């Protein structure tokens, strides 16, 4: 991972490069930006650069990604790099062999390790323990202790605090003390997708760096590098499905190219378009219902959600093309003809209402509602809206 491997964020990287080059790095940053935009990957790259042992590199390139230090950082096991996120209190209890609660602690540790594993695989993932009350005081006390020790091997200590808006009030006050008198060898990077919820006194001690979602073209170029076996249609569709969230995009790439049954997103999309066609032909309505039954019975939830999302993205294309016949950046450029035919055949349909109904179905499926009931009701509603019956 060097600067080149970061998806997007050119301006933010330039700010950090300049600070590094002139030795004027702030002692504390607040990286603010939407969930899944990859701001934590920038925080980790900064931490790696400050500890990389390969001194032959040009300062512009970033970390080498190969030295012992870089490899430890990638494994989230670097002694100078601390990564904090909201955990549950049980994790911080010490194991007392005479107590029954040991099982509770051991289970919490397992959950914690599983989240770290996920983070190693997916650097855009935001880990958080479900039963967490936030980032806890004990976690910040540990940081205080670590801050008082010199960094190893001449590097710098970097404390990356994920979801900094979830600092417990007592923890936040302790952190504030650290930020007020920061040891020279420590760099703090607070990360948040809700920076307005970070304590103002903490915010004012940090240099703010605001991140936006990477642009679709940047995400598409990254997918092409990461998964060259995917074709353009697949890439474009993954970009649309992920809506700028790199964590979702990576999950889709993994599902598409990883081991085991691939959901083949474009195949699912084609099925969704066929389904829509069947809704619109009265004699074929039963086939649309058949698709619902098949989805309910033999698809995973992810596949069901991709199916519904594909309908949303198709309606979005239809809306764009009905406003501007030459709209260029479609979610589904390979089936632009179908889209245009739909625009002609069904003008002035309430696609906003149709989309709302699909979004409601997605929420219901996420809440574990019966898939067949949800989809059958949605199908009837869509027919009514699209055919005006
Ligand atoms: Zn290195």
TrEMBL record:
<dbReference type="Pfam" id="PF13177">
    <property type="entry name" value="DNA_pol3_delta2"/>
</dbReference>
<protein>
    <submittedName>
        <fullName>DNA-directed DNA polymerase</fullName>
        <ecNumber>2.7.7.7</ecNumber>
    </submittedName>
</protein>
<dbReference type="GO" id="GO:0006261">
    <property type="term" value="P:DNA-templated DNA replication"/>
</dbReference>
<dbReference type="GO" id="GO:0003887">
    <property type="term" value="F:DNA-directed DNA polymerase activity"/>
</dbReference>
<keyword id="KW-0239">DNA-directed DNA polymerase</keyword>
<dbReference type="InterPro" id="IPR027417">
    <property type="entry name" value="P-loop_NTPase"/>
</dbReference>
<dbReference type="InterPro" id="IPR050238">
    <property type="entry name" value="DNA_Rep/Repair_Clamp_Loader"/>
</dbReference>
<keyword id="KW-0548">Nucleotidyltransferase</keyword>
<keyword id="KW-0808">Transferase</keyword>
